[in-house]
Amino acid sequence: MKKHMAHSLKLMLVLSLVMSLLSACGAPTVQDNYPLESVSGSGNTTSYVYRAAERTVPEVAQELSEQRQPDQISAESTERMFLVYQDQYYHLQQDPNKEEDTLIEVDSKEYVRQNYDSSFLQGYLTATLIGNLFDSFGGGGNGKYRGYTNKDTYKPREGTFRAPTSNDKKLAPPITVERKGSITRRGGDTDTSVGSGGGLFSRKKEPSSGKIDRGKSGGLFNSPKSSYKKPKTRVGGGRIMRRR
């Protein structure tokens, strides 16, 4: 009985801790600060461009990386930087027509594969990431696209950019994702630094996150089937005695 109560208490404490961590997560509303400026593509092949007024590329990169650490981040630059998350590529670019502003292009993986020039990406992303990106989709990387600021010279294959509609604004992904304290899964080969200089955002390769195994002997989360033992009985004197 005492063991059962202790087990239940431990389980409640752990669940409370997990719930407190999850409550700290959430996507802050940033569309008011970074208005949606342009949209291209549809479905899983999309590109959304936001404007960060009077913010430099390194400033925006630092803000985003503090809210959620990217899987990879290119070397610090005032003109162009990449932040890579699991399903999205954040391409930060200094607006050539308004140099005090930063354009934040949020591209889906498929958009990058369909449109970007792989040789252009080699200057910002690791060869392993580029290889996995295009190989996992069965090729690609032969487009000429080099980002929104060069869209008129190096045009994307899939569609053209246009002013966002009300529906686009509803479907557009937020610039930031999770606040600090969030729980994220990372692969064993996660590398958060790219480029020789590294700059302000250089980080060493990080180990994989841990995991909770259920149902193993001695674990905190043993299932009822594994922790429950059928009471032993014995027969004697014509009656059945239950061990207490």
UniProtKB/TrEMBL annotation:
Signal peptide feature range: 1-26
Bias-annotated ranges (Gly residues): 235-244
Keyword Thylakoid carried by entry: no
Domain of life: Bacteria
Compositional bias per record (Basic and acidic residues), positions renumbered to this chain: 167-189, 203-216
Record flagged with keyword Chaperone: no
Keywords tagged on the record: Signal
Location of region: Disordered: 148-244
Cross-referenced InterPro entries: DUF4247
Alphabetized Pfam families for the sequence: DUF4247
Protein name: DUF4247 domain-containing protein
UniProt organism field: Paenibacillus amylolyticus
